[in-house]
Structure formats: C-alpha cells, structure tokens
Amino acid sequence: MTAPHGQRPHVVIVGGGFGGLSAVRALRRHDVDVTLVDKRAYNTFQPLLYQVATATLNPGDVTYFQRAVRAVNPHVRFRLGEVVRMDHAARTVSLDSGEDLAYDHLIIAAGVTANFFGIPGAEDNALPIYTRDGALDVRTRLFTGLEAAATEGDEHGDVRVVVVGGGATGVETAGALAEMRNHDLQVTYPELDPQRTHVTLVEMAPVLLGAFHEGSQAYAKASLEKRGVDLRLGTKVAEVRPDGVVVGDGELIPAGLVIWASGIAVSSSVADWGVPQGKGGRILVDDHLRVQGLPDVYAVGDIALDEGNALPQLAQPALQGGKYVAKQIVAGLAGAPELPPFRYRDKGSLATIGRSAAVAEISHLPDLKGFPAWAVWTGVHVFSLLGNRNRAATMVNLTAKYAFWNKSHNAIVGDLPTVRERARQRRAS
Amino acid sequence: MTAPHGQRPHVVIVGGGFGGLSAVRALRRHDVDVTLVDKRAYNTFQPLLYQVATATLNPGDVTYFQRAVRAVNPHVRFRLGEVVRMDHAARTVSLDSGEDLAYDHLIIAAGVTANFFGIPGAEDNALPIYTRDGALDVRTRLFTGLEAAATEGDEHGDVRVVVVGGGATGVETAGALAEMRNHDLQVTYPELDPQRTHVTLVEMAPVLLGAFHEGSQAYAKASLEKRGVDLRLGTKVAEVRPDGVVVGDGELIPAGLVIWASGIAVSSSVADWGVPQGKGGRILVDDHLRVQGLPDVYAVGDIALDEGNALPQLAQPALQGGKYVAKQIVAGLAGAPELPPFRYRDKGSLATIGRSAAVAEISHLPDLKGFPAWAVWTGVHVFSLLGNRNRAATMVNLTAKYAFWNKSHNAIVGDLPTVRERARQRRAS
C-alpha cells in the first residue's frame, strides 16, 4: 500500500481529463498531496479530435503529457495504469500494476467511452472519434480509401463516408470532410471525380445540434447542405455493416468508412469500483458531487450523474465540477463550513461547420453565426488547450488551414498501406 | 502500361525525398508531365527526426503530404507504391500495384535505409532513427522504459540509453537525451534518480563529427561531456544484445534502449532495377549524374555514386543533384547543348548539441560555435522544411522547448503500455 511519504492528506484523482486536471490545478496552492491516475500518458482535448481525424491537426497538438502537470502542481505524482478495484472501507484504489493507493479523499473523473447502443455491427464496423487512437484510425482509413480509389483509375467506385450522429462532433466532422472534398481533393486526388465523393450524416432526431437553439440548428443544416453534405435527419440506424449503414426502413446507405459520433457510455470496469451506478452506468452523486453513501468520494464530469439535476456531458460541467470538489475538500480540511450545493454555470455552446461558418451561443450574449461565431470558436478552443506550446501550434495549424485556403493542401497523414500491402492485409483477414 | 494522356514528355521520379522533390520543383514551369512514385504518403525531413524521437516535435511537423506537391507543380501525379522492377529496354517502371509506368526520362532518387554492417544482433536489438516510424518506435521505447522504472519505485534499475554513431545524428540525439535527463526528468519523473539515468555514445573513430573541422569536433566533445554524456570514442561495436552493446574488448555496456545512428545502405530491392551498382549497392553514375550505360536514366542523392567524385550523403548534394538533373532534361528537350558536369557546392555543415550549443561551418564564413551556431542551425532547418505550416509549427515547438526552458516540460508522447499491458506483451513474446 503506497501513499506519499508526508503526513499531508492524500487526494487520489482517477482520470486526467477536464475534471481531474481542473481539480489538480485547484489544489496546487493547498497543503495536500495528490496522486493522479490515468490509463494514458497524455490528456486529450477531445473537442478538437475530429481535426486530427481529418488531417488538419497533429495528435500532439491536442494532447498534453500528463507528467508535465507537475510544472503546475509540484505536489502531484502520476501513475500510468488502470483502476481494477476500489475498497472504500479500506480506502484503497487498486491499479493493474498491483499497487494499492491509500486515499483520504478520492475524486473519480474517469470519463466515458463510445456507446454503440447495442446496434448490430456498430462496434465492429464503425469508428468512433473519441480517443487519439480512434481519430488516427479514422484518418488512416479515410486516406487509405482515397488512395485505393485513386489507384483504381477511372473505374474506381464512389468514395462514401457516413457520419452517424448530428451533435457537435458529428456536425463538425461532416463539415470538415465536406470542406476537404470541395477544396483539397481536386488538387491532391485529381484521379477522383468530386461528384463521386459523398459525405452523408445520419441523425435520429429531426434536427441537428439538438442541444442548441432553433436558429443555430437551422444555420447548421443550411451550412452543411450548402457544402454538399447529404443529410438524413429523423433516420434511425438499424445496423452497421462492412459495406455501409442500414437505416430504419431497411435501406442500405453504402459507405467505405462509417464514423461514429453518437453517444457515450461509462466503461464496464466501473462495476468493480464499489460505487452506486444509475442510468447508462453513471456514478450516482448528491448535489455536492459526493458519491452516494461515500462521504469522502466524489465523482465529476461525464461519469457522474446527479439524478435531481442531470448535466450535459460536456467540458464545462467537468471543469467546474473538478474545481468545486477541490474547494470542497480544502474547506473540509480547514474545518470551514460545507460549500453550498454545486451549481453548473452554462457558459454557452459552440460548433463549427467550415471556414468562417460556426454557431456560438454564449450566455448573456445574442447568438452568433458565421464569421464572428467561427472566430469565437477558434479563440475558445485554442485558449482551452493545456500549455502555451499546444495553443501556439494549434493556432498555426488552424490558421494555415483557413487563411491559406486553396493554396496549401498539406495534410497530416501517417503511413498508408501500398496496394501490395492492402492485398496482403485482405488475405490475412 | 500507363502514361499521362498528353503528348508531353513523361518524367518518372522514383522517391520523393530531397532529390526527387527538388526535381519536381525545378520542372514546374516546363512542358513535361511528371509521375512521382514513393512508398510513403509523405516526405520526411530526416535531419529533424531525432526531435520526434525525443518528443519535442510532432511527426507531422517534419513530414509533408506528397500529394500536396501538386500545389507546387500541377503537372505532377503521385503513385503510392514500391518499385518492383525496371525494364530500361522497354522504358518501364513496374510498381507493386501491377501498374507499369512508361518513361521518357527517369530520375532515381529513392534514398537509402539503415545499415547495420552485419553486426550480430544490431538489426534485431537496435532502433534506427531513419524514418518517421523508426523515430516513433524510439520515442515509445524511451518513455516506456522511463514509466517502467518509475513504477518500480526506489528499487528501479538504472535507466540506460546507448547511441551508436558519432556523426551529426548521433551527436544531436545524445545531446537531446542529455538535456531531457538534466532538465525535464526531475519534474516529470521525480521517482527517478538523475544520477542513475545514463546516456552513452559509442563511436568507432577517435573523434565526433568526422566530417567537420577539428575545432568543431573538440567543441562537440566538450559540449556533450559538459552535459554528462558518457563518450566512448575509438570504440567498435561487436554485438548488440537485448541487454546492451558489446564493444571491441568484450565489455558489455548495459542498455535498455540502443539507438542506431550509424551508417546507411541502399535497399536490396535496387538489385531488380537493372542498374549498375557499386560500393554499398549505390547506383553508378557518370559526371552528369546519368546512370552508367542508360542515357535517359539519372540517379541523385544518397543512392547515387560517381566513383570519380564521391559526394557526402547529405541533403545538399541531393537537392542540388535533383535540380541539376531536371535542368539537364529540360536542356535536352529544348535541343540545347549539354550542361557542364555536375559540381556540388558545399554550403556547409551544421549540428546542434543542446540549448544554444551547436557548430556551424558555412562556406566563406568563419566557423561558428555556441549560440550564433545554434541560431543558424535553427534558421536553416526550419527554413528548409516544405510548406509554411510545417515551418511555423516547428518554429513554435522548438521555441517552446528552448525559450520556455525549465518552465514547460511538455513532451509529445503516444500511447504507452501500462504495467499490465507490458506483462501481457512479455508473456506473448
């Protein structure tokens, strides 16, 4: 059983995403030792992962080395690993390394993973953009498909991508793909007929951006249609097959690549963590973000659910929750009275569709559309990245993409299989 | 058999490195169609790959999408593939896709690969920094080793990296590793004792930077020693084992990671290309860079050898050779007299050792050392990158590394295996 050597209270934080890192930051000037556990060596800025998938940003632009947070809070130690068990009577968190961490206070901020809602074939045939690896897989599949079609010459089949989900991620992904088709492919893939390259977005609800206002929804719809995205609203996905998506009425929408931008779920391993779980497996918390029945255990962000006050699964509730919980722990240690219940302050919603096209709903401001919204989107996202280097590098790459429009057609790609390698892979599978 | 549809002469270029792309550029305003063949989808700026291996730059900062060169020369088409055969009587180049390219003029600029000189165990146990993938493998092994030692706690074994080769790549890699050990590890890996983290450089010659002047050699030696690199000059590698490097006298230098920065060789597939090969398998050319006996076939860069005038295997001879050959082809098509023989203009040599420490030997200028040399090194390398985006992004990342010294400790890492995953990998192997 390990705890830091000092006699200071020990806060264990599981998950170094928005919620976990905002708690790390909020604890930096206080007299506590912190152990941060994450199964990845880096933090991921998920709102920009679709830009990695569509080859505009480097994975390194939207990830941040977890161990570098010690520059922010020197009382943090990091453990790379997965939590396999928690024992709240003994106050321990057990890692896959075999190490048991003793905690005085525990913050669970482990986030969520993709949810395929049990739709047949979805997990096997659709690629979610929810992790760095997922985004890189989409990028490789996308460019491998383009290369294959280009090699086949004039007789190539149509190139078809289907995006499932009409929330911010789905809209942004479909918009970026349409911009690539409309502006880059004629230069980089002259072998392909743009008329035979298709981007389709499938959404069960009758509108895009369900969480936004009506004006923003209409603007997003018009912007995607203007860019030639085939919109299938009010359309339910019944099955995902290797050759496409079967929708409610039995129609097959053919696709060489299906991108999953719909739904998130709690990891199944949470069942071993000794915490009460509610809808979707989320951890049940009270109005102080305490896990029900466990006074020194908190849960924040996507993984937490206060049934009396369900919050959207976005960055802001996680950021605010992490900070609130850190303050709550510090107040408790100081013998100060308990904080009032957690209140989420909705700062607004943003989504971008393409160059100079975005929607921005900021609290206390009128809704923005078009270039002003796009400028706000860019500023907010870049400012939210951890570290000046990531901010500057992302700004450079987004600027290159949007300012040198139609002049540079660079794309950040990895290794693509050649024709011979593709044949070998097909034989092996 | 495919050739572009027009009646314009068709130049096939095999390899999109420094030599091939400089030919593509030089041909951009002339009346020829160009097909560029490369087995990778991107061009790699090899001189900065060691910065990818040591987690300062993104792979996307030092690679450039091959298909984006059409923005430079719209008469280029690209083929992703490997050359499996050439038939110079029929004037064809056969790709692994089965496609045969008919050429009027052929430029072979396929570069070289790592050379292990037949040293036992080297190919299996040492990692070369010669490709994007190679650099990423080094990065993953390096950080996996640090994480493993950090997890093991106070009893961890010493962390030892051996760099084989004292040329520019070896010196720059060892310098970057030493700077990481001296400046970053105390923040990011507080679990490790810096005294027990070792960087060793092994070089057969009695000096570092054999191609440089004596003053630069002495400066590089002193700079690495000052940074705590264990230098083993005049030391021959006899064997590379999983646990380290055995040197000439039978001593084992223990190492968890052996980086190979010594020697390059021509790919074995060149034997099927119907061209005369000389020392090290390099393609024999005359003083006009024509492949001996094949008047319409040229070879440039590392892969070419003019026995009467052997050139260093660096970027500059390739860049100048590609441009010269393009001019030669254009002159021939115009019926102009043959160009005078190719003359390589040595513009100088550069190597960096650490922050504000470098050597620069520029023709017609006195040799530079220290900060002025480092500033020249940075400027030349950044300026040499293809594309404004890569230039700006690299400048940002190098600036963050050197200007915010000791404040930011970000590192660009990928996925690292957790302890459980490492155990699983060990069992599987």
Automatic annotation (TrEMBL), chains A, B:
It holds the Pfam family Pyr_redox_2. It is an enzyme of class 1 (oxidoreductase). Residues 347-401 form the External alternative NADH-ubiquinone oxidoreductase-like C-terminal domain. GO terms for molecular function: NADH dehydrogenase (quinone) (non-electrogenic) activity. The keyword Oxidoreductase applies. Its EC number is 1.6.5.9. Keywords: FAD, Flavoprotein, NAD, Oxidoreductase, Transit peptide. Residues 10-322 form the FAD/NAD(P)-binding domain. InterPro entries: FAD/NAD-bd_sf, FAD/NAD-binding_dom, NDH-2, NDH2-like_C. It catalyses: a quinone + NADH + H(+) = a quinol + NAD(+). It comes from the Bacteria. Belongs to the NADH dehydrogenase family. This is NADH:ubiquinone reductase (non-electrogenic).
